[in-house]
Amino acid sequence: MKIDQQQIADLNQKHSDLHKRQLENLMAVFSGSLTEKVINKLIDFQVALPSWALGAGGTRFGRFSYGGEPGSLEQKIEDIGLVHQLTKTAGAVSLHIPWDIPEDIHAVKQLANSLGIVFDAMNSNTFQDQEGAGKSYRHGSLSSVDKAAREQAIAHNIEVIRIGEQLGSKSLTVWLADGANFPGQYNFQTVLQHTEDSLKAIYGHLPEDWKLLIEYKPYEPNFYSTVIQDWGTSFMLANACGEKAFTLVDLGHHLPNTNIEQIVATLMMKGKLGGFHFNDSKYGDDDLTVGAIKPYTLFLIFNELVYGMENNPQNPPLAWMIDASHNIKDPLEDLIQSLDAILVAYAQALLVDREALREAQQTRDVAGCQEILQEAYRTDVRPLLKEARMRSGAAVHPLEAYRSLQVRKQLIEERGMKVRATGL
After folding, report:
1. CATH homologous superfamily, domain 5-17+44-348+391-415
2. Predicted TM-score (pTM) of this structure
3. 366-377 helix and 354-362 helix, angle to the nearest 10 degrees
4. Mean per-residue pLDDT for 284-313?
5. Where is the signal peptide, in residue numbers (predicted)?
């Protein structure tokens, strides 16, 4: 389905007067040039949605369908198109292979293009055994002591690159589940060396204008050790591969209370932050809705991201993606909420008085530094988001519009209650 643009305009009109007053109040506090800068940056900001996030969620123990799920890659792209039409912030899709291999690449590209969607990073899968595969990844893939298993995993990543080239993607994300559950299960140095060699082999097949994004995770599915367990290991492997290899930060892939904003700052200073996966957590890799648990932490991370984007030209433009699990929510509603939280944190970070903060830091005014950051964080920036949406033709209140237009009901009428999303 596709939403009639006039329906969005009619819904926006209902909020027009209140929005104007709220925006005028905010602009009375901040200069017009600053608010215009923030609004324009919000309009330009695009976040990729992963193809695996459109189906029904649940927990590790069960999956709870809700009806109207996308039964094909094409329908997943159509759903992303709906979110993008309502928000104008979801203009990219990140495909997972082999969960979402296009059957007709030309047709899929045409569909995405018609919806204003481009193809972001490609994601390989060597954490599951695929039907018909000659070797199992039960004891590792790129790190395996079995050379044939490593070669199979390398070949899969090369194939993902080939598919991505045809779609117009420019990067490959590698996340390894490789690790051990018990001491002595493998030799740490041996598996790390295998991983480095495998990544170099994949890197050698990257097109000239591509990036290799190396993800990390401290635990799960293995609980004694993970081969690429932290940002330092990813950074080391990226350096070993070459200048087109970068570290990818996933908010859920850290031990509790890790200072993620410091990691972001360090990587950007070194020009090695390649991408960012948004989600939120209470305990571990919970993959909850962005900003649902720790909105201040999200703001502090964006504070470093904004500083890095303004002061670290050696770091390339970042690949942004939501990697969350909606659990028992309607996934489209969850994605809309996540996009909203991301834009709020980004806008707040753009309002930080950097000159005043720098002066307070130089004069060792610790309390002043905190006040400057919290002044920006406590600002209600939603009028800026609404103005950015209004100007770009999005819904001023995307979630409200989604519900008012009964999008889920229409999807159920089109697809039924029984269909199950492809892939995960």
Report:
1. Divalent-metal-dependent TIM barrel enzymes (3.20.20.150)
2. 0.96
3. 160
4. 97
5. none
